[in-house]
Amino acid sequence: MSLVTVTESAINAPRFDETLASAARGLHLGETAIVAVVAAAALLWWLERRGRPRWARVPVSTYETPHSPYRASSLVVEHMGRAPRLVLVASFGSLAFGNLFTPLIVLALSKYPFDGIAIPLVPGIALAVINWLCAWLLLARSPHAVATARSGAVASLMANIGLLGLAAAHFVVVELQRRDGIAHACSSSVTFVVIVFAVSSVLQALVTMAALRRHERSLAWQLG
């Protein structure tokens, strides 16, 4: 292969304004992630301890005491005591997700060019905050926890599965067509943020839905 061919290939190769690694550095992803996780762990510990009295009302074991051949009563012999592990995992994920992506999206929108693919990130801030609040409701065993968490998870799935497909199409159609000497207003950094946000949001929504399916009865306020 001649030097001219190599040069032409380099010139015609896709050109990104930022790589994923450089975008992560520019957004201080490492530092933000550490703060987000530590803050989420501290919040989880505090909220879990505050919510224990309500979770302690959930019966997990009963004993049938017969009074006659025709009548019997149930005696609760054990209560749950604290939020189940899957609820804790879902709550921690919601707290960490909100702590990480709320400032990350704001920083990305202020730092990089605001193009078409960045528009879905604006409601993404509200979605991150809602899911963050869902963790508080779940750990407190709020009467509104199931409805709110399910609505937030379904909204995340509906919005971000489509957003992930849109971001992938944008990456192929726009970003991979960018060549040296041919400029356009879009930023590959924003596309990277959108893809990471969409994937993380879908995973968090799936964990939340799993927690609701498994422990919806325990979260029912009628249990006390």
Summarize the structure.
This protein is mainly alpha-helical and 224 residues long. It has one domain (22-47, 82-223). It has helices spanning 3-12, 20-26, 29-55, 85-111, 121-139, 145-173, 188-219; strands at 59-66, 72-79.
Name the descriptors.
two-stranded antiparallel ribbon; disordered N terminus; 224 residues; mainly alpha; 2 strands
Please, could you describe this protein's structure?
This protein has one domain (22-47, 82-223). The longest helix has 32 residues, at 188-219. Helix 4 (85-111) runs antiparallel to helix 7 and helix 6 packs antiparallel against helix 7 (188-219). A two-stranded antiparallel ribbon has the order 1-2. A hairpin with a 5-residue loop joins strand 1 (59-66) and strand 2. It is mainly alpha-helical. Mean pLDDT is 76; it is low at 1-17 and 179-186. The chain has helices at residues 3-12, 20-26, 29-55, 85-111, 121-139, 145-173, 188-219; strands spanning 59-66, 72-79.
